[in-house]
Amino acid sequence: MKKQPKSVTGTNLLHAKNHNRRAVLDAVRRHDGLSRADITRITNLSAQTISNLVGELEDSGLLLAGEPIRQKRGQPARPYRLNPDGGYAIGFQLTGTQFDAVLVNLLGKERARISQQFNHPNPEQAIELLIDATHRIISDCGLDPARNIGIGIAMPGPVGIAGPTGIAPGWEGFDIVAALSEKIDCPVFVENDADAAAISEKLYGNARTLENFVYVFVGYGLGAGLFMDNQIIHGTNGAAGEIGHLPVEPQGRDCPCGRKGCLERYVSLLALYDEFDAADRDALLNDTTLNRLAQLSPDDEPVKRWIKQAAPHLATAVQILGSMLDPQAVMLGGLLPEPIVKALLDELSNLEVTGSRTPLGNALPVQAGVGNLLSAAMGAAALPIYHELVPDFQNMLKIRDANA
């Protein structure tokens, strides 16, 4: 679904206050145990502004005040930290055959999870299932619905498409955010699975200190979350990072997109499953719980073959990403079990081309992300938390349609 061009108008006091509020929360999130003076220094806001904001955030339950600490001079300083239970978020990992939902606290710790299988639902059916699951998971945890800061949804491929990487026919151009927001009283966010996992990696994973990185998400297909200058890059049609369809093998394997030799035909779960005999391949494909995948070992012969074939093609993609985007690191994650990720990274490090250097001559680290079988759901849950806790210059701006 093509995005409409945007133009930017000025800010106003509400937008500025929301931005400052996020700046305070982000400072405390990154530096646990800050005093008001510390927060003032880090954010460059006035002492009065910090006093007002910290008071409001403490009253709302988002910040917790510790016992005052005596100092050499002046009044004792009271340290503040983020209240893990000051709010929670729900993340959905949505495919054509199943959803997985996780509820996490503000520190990204899982409190509950539920799953449900279905058969390629139409959008209206999916909305009702998500609403029911939201009420159920909140009720099961005994939580206050008012503390729900939002729902995140991670979907395969560019959001709003059908086809091989979408959900099902009927989803083309469907605005799931608007449809769900009409029926539930909390903010709703949606990203593709790679972008959602990248945001989770930024909040809670190995990319916490990075401003520019690429998260390569290995799922049934292959995608990448491009986290550049502290924000996700979406592109004109929301398809930035669709590296699965980079051509890496001339006249190579047929791809559902209609071309040959696409990267995801060599680096993806489907490519991995193709290394197994027919019976085992079907068993892996039909296991929507991914329990069989979790039991695979890098010592299994089909897995070994896949790693040997996948590594050179992935190395090519890493070089392209390094040359085009100049990231600080490439993170490898998604649905692959951790031992297989490690084995794939070891194989990459053995390839001469991977010791690859950026055009400026710097080494480009390729490392494991904090991924698991629910990494997309955890990433989806991170979406509302990221919006609530992390300052973004764009949040200060009033965006309107170019034709307005």
TrEMBL record:
Residues 24-63 form the HTH marR-type domain. It comes from the Bacteria. InterPro entries: ArsR-like_HTH, ATPase_NBD, HTH_MarR-typ, ROK, ROK_cs, WH-like_DNA-bd_sf, WH_DNA-bd_sf. Gene3D superfamilies: 3.30.420.40, Winged helix-like DNA-binding domain superfamily/Winged helix DNA-binding domain. It holds the Pfam family MarR_2. Belongs to the ROK (NagC/XylR) family. This is ROK family transcriptional regulator. It comes from Thalassospira aquimaris.
